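Field reference: sequence -> structure
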Amino acid sequence: MRWWQFRRRDADLERELRSDLELEEEEQRENGLSADEARYAARRAFGNKALIKEQAHEAWGYAALDHLVMDVRYALRQLRRSPGFSAVAVLMLALGIGANCTVFSFVDALFLKPLAVAHSERLVRIYAKGPAGHYGAGFSYPEFKLLRDRASSYAALSIEAERPQLHLVLGDDSMEVRGEFVSGNYFTLLGVEPHLGRSFLPEEDMVPGRNGVVVISDLLWKTRFNRDPAVLGRVIPINSIPFKVIGVAPPDFYGDLAGLPVEVWIPSMMYGAAGYGCDDGTFNCSLFESMVGVLAPGYSGSRAQAEAASIMVWSATDWPERPSRRQIALCAASRESPDSQADDAAQFRLLASATAVLLLIACANLGGLLLARGLARRKEIAVRLSIGAGGSRIVRQLLTESLMLAFLGGIFGLMLSMVGKKFLSDFYATDSEGFHHLYDLGLDWRVLLYSMALSLIAGVVFGLVPALRALRHDLITDLKDGGPLEPHTKGWLRSVLITGQIALSMILVIASGLLIRSASEVRKGTNFDPKNLLVLRLRPELLKYTQPQMEALAHRVDERLRGTPGVQSVAFMQGGEGLIWNWQNGRDAEVSAIPGSRLETAGLQVLKQNVSSVFFETLKIPILGGREFNEQDRAGSPRVAIVNEALAQRMWPAGSAVGHNLYVNGQSYQVIGVCANLQPESSVYSPELHLYLSYWQSNATREGDVRLAIRVFGNPLTSLRMVRRAIQSVDPNVPVGEDMPLSEQVSLEYMPILLAPSVMSFCGLLALCLTAMGLYSVLAFAVRMRSREIGIRMALGARRQDILGLVVAEGAKLAVTGTAAGAVAALISTRLLAGLLYGVRTSDPATYIGVTVLLLLVALTASGLPASHAASIDPMQALRNE
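Structure field:
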């Protein structure tokens, strides 16, 4: 018998019972009884109709379903009878479950959700792991061919190189787009059919630089070509190379890297022609980031990795020293790169911990409310036990009510998570170089299953103990209307729950306080001023400019910008050395004060950046000694350097560094200045050793990559268009990108540090509200239960302030205990935040004192309302009610 046939079978049973009863009634009338007597006699002879139906249901196996339906109906009636309690409980659960579902949606998008391509379960990505442990060492084209032609573990293999700085010109407008150079079989391998046109032909990826064809994304087609079907066959310049559009990707395909939407796909053989690779243009030293492949039937990932490692012969010529230091690494292709995964995993562990604590506080709060509600329902429970209900039946009924609350909280929590996902996605939408990220945050079965499991666990956590405690009553006492309530107000469990809530709130609020102070430090900049500054990047090397052309461009752009109205000063540095202000950026250099020394003896490994004159003035970096670079520090003049304070103290701890000779990679430089450290104070990261060389002395224009910092008088956003026009008036073809206010770039670069306090502050604020509600409800319940005692006290002469002090003291005792426990727990747990804290330590006294005072004030406020109610009790009315 199927469960969905229950209604039909039950209706059949009802008709059969009615027919049998009518037959019995007719038989009684035939025996001489009147109609009424026959009817009553038939019912007596027939027996209990409801019992017969229950026995039939048990025989069919539907008894449990019957009981469940009854429990759910009764639970819904109970919730309707207490709409205020139900609304508060559902809201608390919705906030806790919604916050957890929001975080899990990103975990799902980044780590769990497969790509929307064919055979995604067999899709893998292969990386070359470098000697430093990163996964971006890359492959040369001969290395790819070797693996493609000899490995049997892969049904198909494609190489790919992701380039976010492709320069696209459309009419008078230019923009940077994210692109990928891929093998000709890329779309076939993924099983992706273009929405319009076609994908690459095999012969279009066979000869270097021959076939300039491109497939564009649906988003680019929509935003830049207005969905014009005539885009097929149109020639568009990318990095000044003409490319013919041959296809438009389907709307739901953005590439095979989670979160990094690709806008154009280009054959790998156009890699060198587009301006990438080695000086000689060979594919032997042009590195592609990774390969993507489909595992052959019967092969596992570990077996495929082992075969690839045994076949690979490393040949890339830009790894002349021990090329075998690279290693093959294979992972699922449905996720980010392993380097990005490690960073995101740490971030989401923190967010998940905060939201889990928030849900735990909500469960503790509801547990306390249900304990109090159980006391208010003690007579109802006593009556049900007295007429034969078993203890398990009562527990099941109360658990059903808790699970109904959790179920409703889960539904509303999923709705709230839609808002939460929008909030979090704003943080992840753009990186510090101005490129957009895109994640599939749509609701899927994993998120639904997670929310259901979370609701079930939460319902059991906050409902089981109150349900069990509801059985621990004296039936005779509880059945009496005048039974004393005072013994029930001494529940230690409710006090423990409130103390625990206060302690957990203390941890969350202290963590959010520390993170807020850290975020403030990084936003304002350490020893540099990000306000009124614009940053952008010029990439003339993508147009294959010669070095004289690059040098002339840098001079003309510098001159034109200095003469632009509203521009205060202009500084630039070599672009390949990272962001213009970031203390973690730069290129490795070996520094020594001893001629000819090696790193293994007296040398130091430092970060080096080549910067122009007025660099320090433009960024407002303090010069602690000596001078900054000027126009005389150029090619042919004595080589000079500026060191940061950390490097100066490391090499010359006893005196000034100015005037000393410094050897950088074996060449002699004179130290002309010492600048302040840009690195904010941290208990985890030791001061970075940093070195600055003159841009013109270092022949930095040879790479054709320039980052500029432009200080303006007004709002940098309003000056951005004017600055771009000034640069394009010098050279309309030069790629300009990564243009934004420096303050925005700082925020994007420190996104994890700025996101954490936002989420933690949200959780901390909710935790404070929940804790205040919990403390208020416990004290209000205690006042209501102790109204007779308070009435007697007042009748015997207790003053209003005595009653106020009695209730407030009870709340203060819980608050002090909770804050003390929370402070100790915070000292231990906040050590996990050390990597996100700049300019503040995990044991910062000001934060701990401020949070303690805040929590005590919240506790006193929550205690004051029940205390005021207690002090206003009429003694005669209280004694009369009892």
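Note: The longest strand covers residues 154-170.
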